[in-house]
Amino acid sequence: MEETLEFRLSGSGGQGLILAGVILAEAAIREGKNAVQAQSYGPEARGGASKAEVIISEGEIDYPKVVLPDVVLAMSQDAADKYAVRVKKGGLLIIDNTYVKNIPATSARVYALPISRLAREKVGKEMVANIVALGILAGLTGAVSRRTLEEAVLSRIPRGTESLNLKALELGFEMARTFTVKVPA
Amino acid sequence: MMSDVVEMARLMQGNEAVVEGALAAGVRFYAGYPITPSTEIAELMAERLPALGGKFIQMEDEIASMAAVIGASLAGVKALTATSGPGFSLKQENIGFAAMAEIPCVIVNVQRWGPSTGIPTAPAQGDVMQARWGTHGDHPVIVLCPASVREAYLLAIRAVNLSEKYRVPVILLMDEVIGHMRERVVLPRAKEVEVIERKKPSVEPKDYYPYRPGDDGVPPMASFGEGYRYHVTGLVHDEKGNPTTDPQVAESLLLRLHRKIYDHLDDVVSVEGYQLEDAEVTVVAYGAAARSAKRAVKEARAAGIKAGLLRPVTIWPFPEKEVAELAGRVRHIIVAEMNLGQLKGEVERAVRGRVGVSGVNRVNGELITFEEILSAIREVALDAQSG
């Protein structure tokens, strides 16, 4: 099969993970790749478990669900508990340690970062933690380029929030460069 | 080279594609009662229709929504509604009325786990038989089943076209996976989309027989408000539209309702084959399950097993000829579906015992996996080796 990358973005409802998944898929398409984004959510609009899956491939994507992700983002303790063990060996587990206090055992490379806290402190709104996370994810994996990710963000966010979101994305890339704390598996 | 596609690829959701397809086909009326996992269709219709001079109405319930769609169509406007299982149940009575009174309309059912309210956000394919037989009486119906976002767009157009052409309710039977997933699509230009309009009467109002068919079995349809006065009823009616209990009239009406669809199976029924040429084991799957099946077939091929896929795009009328034809050349058929074997029964009926048929079924509210289909393919291949 052609090269395929699977992403699982998980956390709580209201953290904007489905939007993050949509933006990631949008960026991949802007780079001429195939992408599929699927989601699942609990019954509550906010606060329940939320999960967005993205598959990016050079080839045709038949099965639209993630089988064993290359990259997992966990933005809540529940999500970390549930998905940390299901990452490809040598894959990436990106943890928001604002909310995840106990990192489960995993065979993935772990990056524990204060995503929500820094979104709040440095951008001024925790709401953009999802965009910060996207910057980290792209910065660490190179799955999509910064330029297309910026375009994708701008095409999918409400008017008037452009500079806020670009600032969040910038913070994410910066965190990927400098803030990474590697935790032994 | 002529190209019918716009170069630009887009990330689009299945439900969104239904809306764009319906609008491209000329739908200008939507009445509905939003329900997960079809809600995005209502949301987008509410946004798009007024800008196109169309009408969107959020009704008090699903029964009224279906009635409003019928009324709009009688007034000459292409009309569509969308729902999921619980709402689809409520619409059945009026779907039967549309079948009987021959009123073009499209009903989208984005299937979720049932019965009853089940799991609103979980996919299933449990409404296959309901789509065919949900309303009472021996009625004809057309049901189309997309397996991708692009196909959701194309089949929304085709659903509208077929309903206009044959004056029949057409059901676009989706599932939560196809409705909610987003994927890369490249769509045909709107102006290159074939749009079919219903046949209108060419006679004066005084000479108009609203239920006198043309050679194709379909009567020309006058819009209300154009000066053609006629009676529309769910009772058995004569060519004038007036109620009767005459056995001869009743019989010829019912037979014509069937004939207008079953005489045109080449136009109505379509399937997609993948790797069927030399396939020894063939999977039959539709909708989201066909995505899993296609990957299973690819992986089986990579492992040296001659597997193929037959995907019914039209599930009703059932592609009997296409499935029967498989029986002559494959060793075994596996029907993969997210119910306990609703279409499998039809496959068995079509092949009449000439080839083995087994099912892979998943009813836990999750997409059927390619692994379970692949392992069924492997079992069949092993049996063949040892047998």
Automatic annotation (TrEMBL), chain A:
InterPro entries: 2-oxoglutarate_synth_KorC (IPR052554), Pyrv/ketoisovalerate_OxRed_cat (IPR019752), Pyrv_flavodox_OxRed_cen (IPR002869). Keywords: Oxidoreductase. Residues 13-174 form the Pyruvate/ketoisovalerate oxidoreductase catalytic domain. This is 2-oxoglutarate ferredoxin oxidoreductase subunit gamma. GO terms for molecular function: oxidoreductase activity, acting on the aldehyde or oxo group of donors. It comes from Desulfofundulus australicus DSM 11792. PANTHER family: 2-OXOGLUTARATE SYNTHASE SUBUNIT KORC.
UniProtKB/TrEMBL annotation, chain B:
SUPFAM superfamilies: Thiamin diphosphate-binding fold (THDP-binding), TK C-terminal domain-like. Keywords: Oxidoreductase. It comes from the Bacteria. Pfam families: PFOR_II (PF17147), POR_N (PF01855). Residues 20-247 form the Pyruvate flavodoxin/ferredoxin oxidoreductase pyrimidine binding domain. InterPro entries: 2-oxoacid_oxidoreductase (IPR052368), PFOR_II (IPR033412), Pyrv_Fd/Flavodoxin_OxRdtase_N (IPR002880), THDP-binding (IPR029061), Transketo_C/PFOR_II (IPR009014). One of its GO terms (molecular function) is oxidoreductase activity. The keyword Oxidoreductase applies. NCBIfam families: PRK08659.1. This is 2-oxoglutarate ferredoxin oxidoreductase subunit alpha. It comes from Desulfofundulus australicus DSM 11792. The lineage of its organism: Bacteria, Bacillati, Bacillota, Clostridia, Eubacteriales.
